[in-house]
Model the fold of this input.
Amino acid sequence: MNANKDDRLKARSQDFHLFHALMMLIMTMLFLPVIGTSKQNIPRLKLTYKIYWPAAKERVELCKLAGKDANTECANFIRVLQPYNKTHIYVCGTGAFHPICGYIDLGAYKEDIIFKLDTHNLESGRLKCPFDPLQPFASVLVDENLYSGTAYDFLGKETAFTRSLGPPNNHHYIRTDISEYYWLNGAKFIGTFPIPDTYNPDDDKIYFFFRESSQEGSTSDKTILSRVGRVCKEYLCFEDR
Ligand SMILES: *[C@@H]1O[C@H](CO)[C@@H](O)[C@H](O)[C@H]1NC(C)=O
Done:
């Protein structure tokens, strides 16, 4: 009786393996033609649009004088690249430790792609973009507002959350208070995301995820804490968990 049951189980498991193998074969045969032909149907992405945007020469010299590496630090490394509106992308680069931002014009019509940096409207990238190409950093652009969690000094020690930009011709800028030093303590930013709160989009919140060293307890205590900061999108409030 027992042996019988074992055999039946074994047979069933073999059946199962066979079934599995067959299914795999059928699936492969089903998908092979798709894989085979799809290659010809996908148009190759042509990378014909390029923007040449080096750091200013004098900034590169100053950067090198400060002991930074000419190739890996004293150039314009892009850290922000976010859609601003239907026709423009907002872009910031480290500008050889002198952050700089501007708009890339995409053109109004699909047939008529422009893809050009508007060099007449460049602006300071301080508090929007880090100085250092390797600095941990987070930013997101929502409703024409740029939210950044960034270091904003040459040494990369001072950190802040900021909101900048806004609708064209009505730019506002706010940041976490300098005097309230207990808000951020050498934060290392990881990511930032808009997250809905209720059915009302006005209630959406911007969440910042970051790490920082603990400020509680003695100075010898170097505990690193994971933190979440939350900024309201409409009226301004800031909470730190
Ligand atoms: C998008 O923003 C740019 C820069 O402010 C502005 O010049 C342009 O007119 C805007 N486009 C639309 C469709 O609002």
Summary: The pocket of 2-acetamido-2-deoxy-beta-D-glucopyranose is lined by residues 84-88, 103, 168 (CB under 6 Å). The longest strand covers residues 205-213. Residues 27-39 have pLDDT under 50 and may be disordered. The chain has three domains: 1-49, 51-129, 135-241.
